[in-house]
Write a structure and sequence with these properties.
Elements lengths: L2 H18 L4 H17 L4 H7 L6 H14 L6 H14 L1 H6 L35
Helix pairs in contact: 1-2, 1-4, 1-5, 2-5
Length: about 130
């Protein structure tokens, strides 16, 4: 499996779901998490940051625009970015995720009595950005 294809496929799937109006909150959050992670990797790469701001729905366009930056910045080797991309792809485009042989299996539970709705956020969480030098 090619990591660049996973990342650009996830970006395209997230954008497509948003454009079509079918994006759930989980897809929207996962898409934003992936883009934020990539923005951190693209620090100092103005063109890549500009391209990342677009909501392109075709993986090939993402590949052409930021593929080299994904490689050069080390994003393709960043496990947080790859995990976020796989999770987004599994949520937004299960058919493409299956084509790339991606499955996201998480088994977590809670024990006890609950008297109100309970939800769990199991997406990858990024550490906070360091404060700006000033």
């Amino acid at each position: 499996m090619d990591e660049i294809n996973v990342i650009v496929g996830a970006l395209a799937a997230g954008a497509s779901a948003g454009v079509s109006g079918t994006a759930t909150e989980a897809v929207k959050d996962s898409y934003q998490l992936l883009k934020t992670s990539l923005q951190r990797r693209f620090t100092g790469r103005a063109t890549a940051l500009e391209q990342l701001a677009a909501d392109e729905t075709e993986p090939g366009v993402w590949q052409a625009r930021i593929g080299q930056d994904l490689h050069d910045s080390g994003a393709v080797a960043d496990q947080q970015i790859l995990t976020a991309a796989r999770e987004l792809l599994a949520l937004a485009d299960p058919a493409r995720a299956a084509q790339l042989n991606i499955t996201v299996d998480t088994v977590n539970g809670a024990v006890g009595s609950f008297h109100a709705p309970v939800s769990f956020d199991q997406r990858t969480q990024l550490p906070p950005a360091p404060p700006a030098a000033g």
